[in-house]
Design goal:
Helices cover 34% and strands 14% of the residues. By secondary structure, it is an alpha/beta fold. The protein has a six-stranded mixed β-sheet. β1 and β2 form a beta hairpin. α2 crosses α3 and α4 crosses α5. The longest helix is centred in the middle third of the chain and has 17 residues. The two termini are 16 Å apart. The mean pLDDT is 94.
């Protein structure tokens, strides 16, 4: 399918053909959800920790005698029911990552791209460059294009001036094509792909069309 190409000056720069094998799938929300869950689980630190009764620093002396008090039988104050005692079944450091096959991850990315195109939320940009590297100039260009919540994907190498100008703008993310991912695609309102990014994606999924 053909999509118009724009420039940062909001001028038309022709059209580009998008592969149906990457952008023309019928989106499956279940695949996208699985991939987002995979990404969010994988990035969890898993460093949560609490002390159990063997680790708390309290006296080991028996609280009171075993019999004759009329109260419940207790040992030392490290028991969870005491203030300052150990945590019962508390969290321990662990890896929260879950397994997801590589082919499913690749398919989820294509479905996320297809979902964005179907919703009319993909913009093709001629090139992402800002010669002066000024945030104010780039902000004005984005305002003219009505870009206030976007993910911009460029080729393998990002233009330094553009990255410097965009990094102070809220809700604007800039990534190289190798960093494209489902979570960042879905969390932003618009997805902006440069022609270099589209070429790299088509090369990456070169075998996808033949398998359809």
């Amino acid at each position: 399918m053909k999509v118009d190409v724009t420039t940062l000056a909001a001028a038309n720069a022709g059209t580009v053909e998008l592969s149906d094998a990457i952008f023309g799938l019928s989106p499956r929300p279940d695949l996208i959800q699985r991939m987002i869950r995979y990404q969010l689980a994988k990035r969890r630190a898993g460093t949560h920790f609490s002390q159990d009764r063997s680790l708390v620093n309290v006296t080991g002396k028996k609280v009171y005698r075993q019999k004759g008090t009329g109260g419940a039988r207790h040992g030392d104050r490290s028991a969870p029911q005491y203030r300052g005692g150990g945590k019962a079944f508390g969290p321990k450091p662990r890896d929260h990552a879950i397994d997801l096959p590589k082919k499913v991850r690749a398919l989820a990315l294509r479905h996320a791209l297809s979902a964005k195109l179907k919703a009319g939320e993909i913009v093709v940009l001629d090139k992402a460059e800002a010669a002066d590297g000024k945030t104010s100039a780039l902000r004005a260009q984005f305002a003219k294009l009505d870009w206030n919540n976007v993910l911009i994907i460029d080729g393998a190498e990002l233009e330094v001036g553009f990255v410097r100008a965009a990094r102070n703008l809220p809700n604007i993310d800039v990534l190289p094509v190798q960093g494209i991912n489902v979570y960042d695609i879905i969390r932003r309102r618009k997805l902006v792909l440069t022609k270099a990014a589209i070429a790299a994606l088509e090369e990456r999924f070169a075998g996808a069309e033949s398998k359809q």
